[in-house]
Amino acid sequence: MTILVFGSINMDLVARTPRLPVTGETILGHSFHTSPGGKGANQAVAAARLGAPVTMVGRVGADGFGQELLSSLQTAGVQTKAVLVDGSDHSGVALIAVDDRGENQIIVTPGVNRRVSRQDVDRLIPLLPGTTNLLLQFEVPLPAVRAAAQAARAAGVRVILDPAPCRPDIPDDLYPLVDIITPNEIEAEQLVGFPITCPEAWTEAAATLLRRGVGIAIIKLGVRGVFCASVQEVFFAPAFPVQAVDTVAAGDAFNGGLAVALAEGLSLKQAVMWGAAAGALSTTKAGAQVAMPDRPTLDGFLRNQSILV
Questions:
Q1: Which residues pair with 56 in a beta bridge?
Q2: Does 102 reside within a domain?
Q3: Domain-embedded: residue 77
Q4: What are phi and psi of 25, to 5 degrees?
């Protein structure tokens, strides 16, 4: 049930503020910290902390951040033998502002993540046999993401794509390579070109993505819950009520939980509940990777919600 993650590895530089600034405004924050992040690395840590064997494929810079990022992955139990230390640029950095409600604004400076290429896919391919799921995101160059999806499809490995940050140049031939796509509400709107404001719109957005060739469309709706559609079934799962502190990595926690549940043979509905629970738990702590729940915490939370584990 090995899970592979192909994607970004960043250092998050996080400032907490009473509220988020508007354009042109300078405001005073009340705290600052650094935290290992990057959507790829976050999803790898999320899955590893839930007990899955996970291997990360990506790049870090030959700098202090790079060594810290590798150490964080290894401490979480992620295998890093396929992570390249690239001295041509700095490690990826994300500048994050988080307000007192837990909402955030994020600017990512990719560094060596922008150099991820076919060379990295070549390191991925030998790892595909025996893999159940490949997790992809859009914080590394699109040609590499597409090549990784093609390789996974050829090897019979399930492809789970988090289309974040969303981009306008997604090729039509990527969608049929994707078994499960997991946009949040804003990303879904950007993908389909119309507002996602009501259940009818969720349904039409998911149907649009299915028509493009994806196997399953899962739309993450934040505090409202999760909408899921495939040819076989359509369902909505309400959000778990928690006291949110920081939502910065909730989507990554969702994908990690979803992937582990599917790798363990659970049904799609059960996997979505695992993802929703992992995402909810991650918002109760500040930071990205440090906020990912471990397996005992997730199991206890699901039992308390009367959900079988």
A1: 5
A2: no
A3: yes
A4: -100, 140
Residue 61 has pLDDT above 70, yes or no: yes
CATH code, 47: 3.40.1190.20
**What is the model's pTM?**
0.93
What is the token pair recorded at 125?
A: 């391919």
Among 75, 48, 117, which residue's Cα sits nearest to residue 255? 48
Token pair of 25 as six digits: 């405004």
What domain range is 138 assigned to? 2-9+38-89+113-304
The residues, ordered by sequence, that sit 6+ positions from 112 with a Cβ below 8 Å of its Cβ are: 59, 60, 61, 86, 88, 89, 90, 91, 92
Q: What are phi and psi of 95, to 5 degrees?
A: -95, 115
Residue with tokens 């309400």: 238
Q: Tell me, yes or no, whether 96 lies in a domain.
A: no
Q: With H, G, I as helix, E, B as strand and everything else as coil, classify residue 295.
A: helix
Q: Of 120, 252, 294, 299, which is the active-site residue?
A: 252
**Structure token digits, residue 134:** 């490949």
Angle at 243 between CA 107 and CA 206, to 5 degrees: 60
Q: Is the pLDDT confidence value at 246 over 80? A: no
Number of domains in the chain: 1
Q: Is 169 among the catalytic positions?
A: no
pLDDT tens column, 167-207: 888 999 999 999 999 999 999 999 999 999 899 999 999 99
